[in-house]
Amino acid sequence: MSDIEIDVPIGDSFSDNYGEENLLSAKVGFAQLMLLSGGRVIVEVTNAEEAKIAEEGGAACCVVHQGKRMPDLSIVRKIKQAVSIPVMVRIRVGHFVEAWILEAIGVDYIDESELMGYAANNNYISKQYFRVPFGCRCKNLKEALARIKEGAAIIWIHGEEGSSLGGTVENVKSIMQTTSNLKHCNEDEVSTFAKEMDASDDLVAQIRDMGKLPVVQIAMGGVETPADAALMMHLGCDGVCIRSEIFEFEHAYSWNPSKRLPAIVKAVNHYNNPRVLAECSNTEEADDDTDDLV
């Protein structure tokens, strides 16, 4: 195999004005602002109609996906024209040309996802070379640190099977507990842990000082109900991702996305209030009295 160097095009103004560390902090800041400006719920969509439902339901951002390849740009443009919330587009792992194209047309975020398959034999994009913030999936802390090292600003935490709520809960708890426990470590212990995780001492020290990962953490996988979403917030996530399957069952209230999404958004933003959660979880018609439930 020939040893070929590939020059990844770098956005000019952003990379000129920020160092690598400050650039990642800026991207994380954009992602945090996106969540706080919206409902802290991100929704997968496949077309403009679903994107409109997501926006009307209070979603902070929509993730566009289409099969096992980058979505057709005509679909991306239609979605960007249809909604005012940020638009993220999913691409194959390692396909920096897809990322370059999407940055050129002005998408707000890029999701480099194993759900789309691999374009470069498990090699991920060096995301620090792009101005647009990236999201990446992880199942454990070592994977999360690897993606952060590459420049990811958003980490999707999911279960081993990808769609299991129990697996997602287990992995979220593991990551949150381990990062929280680092605050008790001295410099030697930080260095030892960094070697075990194949991460830099500086990154692990930053996590120790913050008590959490220095990026946005989103629960993805098995989050289908308001109660599921509230649980993830209690575990320490910054938000949740709702898979596009929510649009496949519109015949009943409990699976009608136009009613389910606002309930999930409300639950995420009131996850400490059981009475509000009871209201969000009521699958009867709106005129039913939820006071009888609590």
* Strands in their spatial order, largest beta sheet: 1-2-3-4-5-6-7-8
Strand content: 5-15%
Output the structural class. alpha/beta
> What is the percent of helical residues?
40-55%
Number of helices: 12
CATH top-level class of one domain: Alpha Beta
Query: Main beta sheet: strand number and arrangement?
Result: 8 strands, parallel, barrel
Question: What is the total tally of β strands?
Answer: 8
Mean pLDDT: 89
Considering the protein shown, what is the CATH homologous superfamily of one domain? Aldolase class I
What integer value in Å does the Rg equal?
19 Å
Regions with little confidence, pLDDT below 50 for 5+ residues: 1-16, 286-291
CATH architecture of one domain: Alpha-Beta Barrel
CATH third-tier fold name of one domain: TIM Barrel
How does the overall form come out from the CA principal axes?
globular
End-to-end Cα distance: 66 Å
List the secondary-structure elements in sequence, H or E: HHEHEHEHEEHEHHHEHEHH
